[in-house]
Amino acid sequence: MVRMYDVLVVGGGVVGCSVARELSRFSLRTAVLEKELDVGLGTSCRNSGVLHAGFNYAPGSTRALLDVQGNRMMDDLCRDLKVKIKRIGKLTVAFDDEEVAELHRLKEQGEVNGVPGLELVGHDRMQTIQHGVEGVLALYSPSSSIISPYGLTIGLAENALANGAHFHLGQRVTSIASQERGGWAVTTASGDRFSAAVLVNAAGLFAADVCRMAGITEHEIYPCRGEYYVLDRRLDGIVKTLVYPVPKKNSPGLGIHLTPTVDGNLLVGPSAEYLDDPEDCACSRDVMKDLRREAHHLMPEIHVTDYIRSFSGIRAKQTPPSVGGNKDFVVEDRKDVKGFINLLGIESPGLTSAPAIAAMVRAMVEHHLPLAPNPTFNPVRPGSALLFSDRPAEERADLIAQNPDYGEIICRCEKITKQEIIDAVRNPLGARTMVSIKYRARASMGRCQGGFCIPRIVRILRNEFGWSTADFLKRSTSSPLFVGTVRPGGEGTER
Amino acid sequence: MNGRERIPAEHRSVVVVGGGPAGLAAAIAAKEHGCDDVLLVERDHILGGILNQCIHDGFGLHTFKEALSGPEYADRFIRKLRGLHIETAEGTIVLSLSPDRVLEVSTRGALRRIEADAVVLAMGCRERTRGAISIPGRRPSGVYTAGAAQNFMNLENIMVGRNVAILGSGDIGLIMARRMTLEGARVEAVFEILPYSSGLPRNIQQCLNDYNIPLFLNTTVTEILGAGRLEGIKVAQVGSDRAPICDTERFVPCDTLLLSVGLIPENELTREAGVAIDPVTSGAVVDDRFMTSVPGIFSCGNVLHVHDLVDWVSVEAAQAGAFAAEYAGSGRRTAERTISVVPGAGVRYTLPQALSGDQACTLSLRVQEPWRDRSVVVTDNGREVARKRMMRLHPAEMIRLDIAVEALSGCSSLEVSVG
Q1: Would you state the torsion angle of the CA atoms of residues A451, A452, A453, A456, taken in this order, to the nearest 10 degrees?
Q2: Do the beta carbons of residue B208 and residue B89 sit within 8 Å?
Q3: How far apart are the first and last CA of chain A?
Q4: How far apart are CA B221 and CA B198, in angstroms?
Q5: What is the per-residue DSSP string for A331-389?
Q6: Domains of chain B, CATH where assigned
Q7: Which of A38, A95, A346, B10, by CA, is between 20 and 30 Å from A360?
Q8: Interchain contact, A281 vs B159, CB within 8 Å
Q9: How do residues B323-336 score in pLDDT, each as one tens digit?
Q10: Count of CB atoms within 10 A of residue A483's CB?
């Protein structure tokens, strides 16, 4: 059986999900093919979670255009999708004459790009915005913000799904062929077949591979890993504004810095290291040591017990290490390969740009397919952006009285209730891994890293959802949590 | 604190936070010392705390002169508690604690606000994780803290792995080495970064030596490998600076890595209430009545400092519970702290950190490294106040030292050292 669609999006990261959600405004049959068992498990969940203002990019570039547009779209989008966003602003700090000159240039560049509210601030004003920042001059960009990157990706996907888009999880595309009568035939590793008039390549780190399957050979992706530390929420509130150094020419990233997250943690990172394997999300001893040293330098009050986790994400770079720096995003409707919309090299600021990329893709799709509005499209996703524990006490008391599962705390560090776990398990996309629950409910993301809640979540899944030991996967079919039972039988507990 | 006042407050004399061994003993003692209004709050659905998953024996050798399993040990206290008709709230968690002893408490069906005359903190501790010790490598499944693996095996009938390596020679790791072996897993080895074990000697013998499981000291895990499930680890010997020595690195294939690398007292509520924390114990600073720096808030058990034996947890918590009852019943009278206690040479920490001097007391302490045939000496401005001679002193074993009230007269600043 071939599943037939109008548009197939390859890749369920923030870009692919943005495209799917945008196209769900129209009466199109749209589907996302995602190789992992959930959306957003690649670079989309492994980054700083920063929305960039857009002054770092050359005027006239696709990145400059899409970043500024995307940033502007985020308030409405996050309100509709119930995604956490904080407009905390950013200081880019200069220490010498050369950097001061660069700041002036960045401000001008930003204004040409249409970045709102840019302001050069001296030492005193710098200190008012963020206590403790040192430097000669800083560029303050109020539209720089923080967001939950996986929250956004999941929100986009769930809203797209609610509006009729299809999501095929665990489907790795292995071949793409143009059909004689037009359009594309796509096969996945599981042998399933799909077809569509238009194919959107949003495969991130694998975008060049998807291109090659379609006969496009000029692109190359160079994976570049960035490692981070996550710090305890004890330090919440100390960093009120993003503080970055002036970007170095030809550096693959923006330098190591402290980034607050919307959930109250601090991130230290990211490093930048080119590697061969696009999935080698490891952390390395030398980089971890550098990050700790840098973190202590930036904030001496960080204690050894504040490091609760490390992780890494991988940038999809178009420039090899010998060249360094960045190249502009590829967002193109291929003239030579009909019906192939190519989204490639979407590294930073891909998160910020995603909704603007989607709008651009919509215009491209319109050249191929008639776009009639979806009469039932609803931009609003149900629920709340707030965790239950962040709601006012009175509201919580009422909800607990109505539903006792709100009164039972499962994740003690992040104060996540049983009902929030149940909601995450019953997610509309049907994602069933432990990281799917983690990214939706926030359980196990605190300082004990799941030591307390994971056994309790396992108990809920076995006793109330009928899962057996073999059903528990960390993130993929190759990462089972358990190997069986201790004694025969005894699935489920008698407590 | 939005709307906090809209939730009606209940008033209680003594609220005990935590229904593990410390909380049970504290609640019982509070009642036995005349407080009729004791509430014990436990976040799990049953009392007993971590004892419930400790199905091995060896509990209660000092208290009951017999070797009980964890659940049996807990049951002795739970029966006593029930016999005294002490009110308990299971499945109930304390969300916040203010310096004026107002607790916000969440339970199935209700959000409660409780004002207490005295609060006994007995939340226990949590395990140190991979993130906390920064082990490099990938993030496959199959990496568990030893206590989480124990919970899965003993309470959920779940086998977490077949080929096991263990990092850290803490007691839970040693117990799990034996437990997994008995259930058919192959335990490759236990690796310990320190030059000595951090578990009790009896556990080294009964859990490792008896099953021919090797213990490699001065060795740590340098990398975790595996894209899906754990495929193995790299281990290396460490130098005197505890940094890995590169050319000693070797690969150990395994599908499971258990971490038994230390316990951290669970003091988030304590900090929230403004209680001063001892940076060495990571627990509250207390006086000889187990009262913290915030009047009316007491602390005992593993949330105060990590113990080696549950028997001492019970003894200590019973004292804390009794003092909490006394405080609540006396119109909240505090004793004046006249004597400071600090660790000296060779001693990592000592507890309590302050004494009133009006009663006998027991100091709890741990030494910094193993010694043979030495004494623990307590001095007051250079004058010897107490001394305990011991054949073995080991960082894994807590030392208790009694000081009579007479010995304390005239003292102002005690130092405890290995002499």
Answers
A1: 110
A2: no
A3: 46
A4: 16
A5: EEE-SSSTTEEEEE---TTHHHHHHHHHHHHHHHHHTTS---B-TT---PPSS-SS-GG
A6: 9-126+263-335 (3.50.50.60), 129-261 (3.50.50.60), 336-419 (2.60.40)
A7: A38
A8: no
A9: 999 999 998 888 88
A10: 18
For residue B6, the chain A residue with the least C-alpha distance is A394
Nearest chain A residue to B160 by CA distance is: A482
Of B42, B13, B21, the closest CA to residue B106 belongs to: B42
Percent of chain A with pLDDT over 70: 98
To the nearest whole number, what is the mean pLDDT of chain A?
A: 95
Domains of chain A (ranges; CATH) run 1-85+148-219+325-385 (3.50.50.60), 86-147+222-317 (3.30.9.10), 388-471 (no CATH)
Confidence of residue A245 (pLDDT cuts 50, 70, 90): confident
Query: How far apart are the C-alpha atoms of A246 and A266, rounded to whole Å?
Result: 20
C-alpha A435 chain-centroid distance: 14
Distances (CA, A) of A481 to A370, A469, A484, B149: 47, 8, 9, 11
Residues 217-246 of B with CB under 8 A from A: 222-223, 227-229, 244
Would an 8 Å CB–CB cutoff place B106 in contact with chain A? yes
Other Cβ atoms within 10 Å of B268 Cβ, number: 19
A52 is catalytic: yes
Tokens representing residue A170 in the block: 């665990």
Chain A interface, best mutation among B43, B138, B157, B234, by max A CB count within 10 A: B157
